[in-house]
Amino acid sequence: MGDDPVLGYRALSGVSDEMLDRNGQIRPVWQTLIDALGRMSESELHERFARADRYLRDAGVFYRSYGAQGNGERSWPISHVPVLIDGREWEKVSAGLVQRAELLEKIVADIYGDNTLVRDGILPPALVASNPEFLRPLVGVKPVNGHYLHFCSFEIGRGPDGNWWVLADRTQAPSGAGFALENRVATTRALSDIYGEMHVHRLASFFGAFRNALQAHKRYPDDRIAVLTPGPANETYFEHAYIARYLGFMLLEGEDLTVVNDRVMVRTVAGLKPIGVLWRRLDASYADPLELNQNSHIGTPGLVQALRAGSVTIVNALGAGILETRALLAFTPTICHHLLDEELLLPSIATWWCGQESERKHVADNIERMVIGPAYSRLPFFDDSGQSVLGSSLRESAKRSVGEWLASEGGKLVGQEVVTLSTTPAYCGGKLIPRPMSLRVFAARTENGWQIMPGGFARIGSGDDVEAIAMQAGGTAADVWIVSDKPVERQSLLPPEESFSRNMPGSLPSRAADNLFWLGRYIERSEGALRILRSWHIRYAEAANPAQPLLADVARYLESIDMDMAKAVPEPLIRNIDSAIYSASNIRDRFSPDGWLALNDLAKTAKRFHEAVQAGDDAAHAMTVLLRKLAGFAGLVHENMYRFTGWRFLSIGRYLERGLHMTRLLGHMSGPDAPDGSLDMLLEIGDSVMTHRRRYNVNTARLTVTDLLALDPLNPRSILFQLNEIRTEVEQLPHPHGTGQMSALDRESMRLHSGLAVMTPDAMNADVYAKLEAEMEKLSDLLGQTYFG
């Protein structure tokens, strides 16, 4: 296919029923987009969509996939053509979802309160008592703000007839809102001119209203708001970090928290600070190992007691996950009549719980159009990893035995009508093709009631099979544009200019400080190793004899710091860089996308060199490339980072590791028995060759090298320089105990600096360096005991 327009009306007329009305005509809401796409050549479309992909890569957006080959980060799978919905139609959908959110609130309040639904025979007792999501310790515990639900999502689908229904409710820890934001940014990068021409509702007001609502839930002025995440191993961790950064909340893990006097507190470098609101992104049963799941390693003991005391608001309330139970969909219409005296505005997918005789018979008699799956599953059938059985796929002999299966296991099973989802256009292989679609839509409780996000994201199947919608099965995600026939208000989370105020950064959690400190150390450790390796390979290229005294001596030193020379780019160097990535991954909410991209680029390059580079000139060049990439990363993160507490811990880590690196090197290579060339190599590793020539009017000598690399307070590579910077930064750190007295860390950093400052070059020897190394390691331990414990 050449550069001729590829998306004309004729090509589109059979593309998708989502785009066409009941008469087979293109819906008016799609007209502008289709006209614009139809005028574009294939090469222009490819260039535009590549722009969106590049944005997502540069922003570091990922989704963790799970499979037989292990877990890994997968680039966010965007479907580039947005799904368009008319604003007037969306008003009807929104009204149905607001009603449903109110209904779910009443259901969960009843289950953990008066339990009238079970008492009056409307809800079978088994669906509550036997439900793994029913948390008995929460019975009778009323949320301090009066509401169990604050943020929900709904999986909805449209049939080919144009009617919408709800496939699943999400009340446990709904995910995807952050990805919806990133989808919007990426899609508008590709289609900015079209987006600007159409009246598409913005998303910022939705998040702004929810943020304001959470702020209103704080009971005390010093309370903090935090997003509670299971950690980097979670499949949607990127979103947790993104939302926390976008809304200005802390990102915490269970180990960051403790409960003191029935109040939830976060461990920070300035001591314990109160948490008033927790936006929970982990399953409720893991939240408190003391009263819920005792095997949980990601929860906080005492959290349930803090709820009983009314000192904290949790979004959503612990136990709300019971509303996701698939079997509950069978009873939702009746419950709606009972609690609201209304019909459901948006019906649920037709569901029958097989714990009742008539329902079992109906499912068995209509097995051809049924999907049978676990009653207590919280997932729609296309998301449940093969746990559901499609009736039409069964052999005749199996169909005849369905009745027996349902009779023996019916209480654990539901039957659901096979879903035929409408299709939406997806750009694949240079053309638009129809793919099944479901929408994930979000609802937030605000100060003015429930508000529905004007959009969300659509999950697009990778094939015609509805089950291929699941992200883990290769499905993709598209932005959803709610299009008005009038101009829409452009809103932002930024306050109006006339209400400007400057807020100081919040307290730094101890775990974040620990990771920043070690990020600094691993980066500097990698740089130190690279400088030694480059110098070694430069000399190896000249001598081609690893047994030459200087090369052999340096090789022994590298082995002493666990840097084996089996390959030109050693495996331990790769591990150091990977450790830096791991530390950075634990603080994604405090880490710039540019820095993350640079760090991962460094790791990929190092691994490529590890496999291909040979010793000598090639290796020396490879080390230079890696040093440049490392310098670029260090500049992005270190120099552009706000000069507050987090920056100080990162800096202390770098200064400490650089000081240790130079201390060990001088102790090994500056003695009287060091091989010829050691002093020149030291200056080269310390990036101080030109400085030495300008500063000293003599040839390289032990005393001048020692003076420059150990005792010169102006040389950014010297030991004394590092200790002076450490002392300065330690003085600026918050005192976690607030006693006003000098801490052991303050005293040790000052003593260490002063002790070296009064030394002379001739007094520096191997014993002094060994003692200095031990004292610097002690300083690291003191820092950890003071701030990371």
Care to describe what's here?
A hairpin with a 5-residue loop joins strand 4 and strand 5. The strands form four sheets. Strands 3, 4, 5, 16, 17, 18, 19 and 20 form an eight-stranded mixed β-sheet that branches. Strands 6, 7, 8, 9, 10 and 11 form a six-stranded mixed β-sheet that branches. A four-stranded antiparallel β-sheet has the order 12-15-13-14, with helices on one face. By secondary structure, it is of the alpha+beta class. 45% of the residues lie in helices and 14% in strands.
Q: List how many beta strands DSSP finds.
A: 20
Q: Summarize model confidence as the mean pLDDT.
A: 89
Question: What is the percent of helical residues?
Answer: 40-55%
Q: What portion of the residues fall into strands of 2 or more residues?
A: 5-15%
First CA to last CA: what distance?
A: 63 Å
Radius of gyration: 31 Å
Shape: elongated
Number of helices: 27
Catalogue the unreliable spans.
1-14
User: How is the biggest beta sheet arranged?
Assistant: 8 strands, mixed
Q: Find the structural class using helix and strand composition.
A: alpha+beta
Could you give a short description of this structure?
The chain is an alpha+beta fold and 789 residues long. A hairpin with a 2-residue loop joins strand 16 and strand 17.
